[in-house]
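Researcher: Good morning. I'm working through a list of sequences from a screen, and I'd like to move beyond sequence-only analysis. For each chain I'm collecting a predicted structure so we can compare shapes side by side. This is the next one on the list. No need for commentary yet; just the structure.
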Amino acid sequence: MNTGEAAIEAGEARDKRPLFRNRDFTLLWGGAAFTTLGAQITILAYPMLVLWGGGTTSAAGLVSGAALLPYLLVQLPAGAVADRYDRRRLMIISDVGCLLAASSVMLAVFLDRIWLPHLMVAAFVQGSLAIFYDLAERSAVKNLVREDQVPGALSQNEARHRAMIMLGQPLGGFLLSLVRWVPFLFTAVAHLASLLMLLAIRRKFQTDRAEQPSGRLAADVAEGVTWLWRQSFLRNVMLLVSVSNLVFEGMSLSLMVIVRGSGGSPSSIGVVVAISGVGGLLGAMTSIWWRRRLSLPALIVAGLLVWTLCVPSLAFFSDPVLLGVVFAFCGYIGGVFNVAGGVYLVGLAQDHILSRAISVAMLLGAGASFLGAFAGGFVLDAAGVGRTVLVMTVLMGSLALVALLSPSVRAGARTREGGRLSAEDAAALD
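Model: Good morning. Structure tokens for this chain:
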């Protein structure tokens, strides 16, 4: 056997490796785990730092809204940048920026120089860079694994995300209750660990282009918007998800108000989030099981109905464990949705437009979330938890009804991607 034949056989053997033996995918997965862990620690620490520091619910809503505003302002250009430029380098820059932003807040809290505008700017910067990182990482996955391994890799990524929520937000609440600046130090260290893992990856994060992208970035953005807007099923489902995210931001702020009002500490919020994370993790792990039995439209309608039943319980429960169970049901549905939607989108979009397609989908799905945080804080201050929960329940129930009656959503069941997984697809995922 000559050297060339040996190299070909070695390459084929590498291609047949399971995901856990894929060095570059494991490094990417681990680096993203650290980045997500840091983000989850601070996403809860920011509003709790305000609330437990004597601030108003409105002020906490402003900080939460600043962290979510990038989903509206940054998504589209970030997707174009991730398709146009080196994704690995973009993720490295994002980690460095998040490290610096978290360090600045840590120093301000340590010196007792907390200033609401500074918290809002730091939260906005971290949220923006997290979007660049997330889009590049999501798009890189299909270039580091075999095509038949993509659904499994995305399922592992969603499970990782849910596990980091389960660990990160409770840890953030616990650390904040001990020493207020420690959550931000932990976040800085997590981004440093992610950075080191990214630097160790060898393979490229995108396919080679026949020619370098030219023209204005706005044209790239427009191409991504046009592509997704033509996918009527995906477009309308993401709009439904967008409105549901408004409700969830209101639920998160309501949770903090309920726990604080009952005398609970930031660590009590952590208990709720930990239980919720278990639900999300199980949802990610069982998403493919559901897709083998239900079409995407049926899954969406059922999920929205479960969410509608969960919202009213906030008006009756104050015990962290019971609240955690409610949020676990919500998280379970979210985990199922995210994996199923991710597989659907990656299967539709080609690599050269994938980051932009994901960015537009995320813009439609989460772009208005900041409104839920901004408005939720003011509504809770003005109307209280009971009336706010009633409004959120009606809104979520309306979404389930729209999904059930929408012709474009129902039509998704008749497509290969939106129908139940075929026997061939199911076999490829085993």
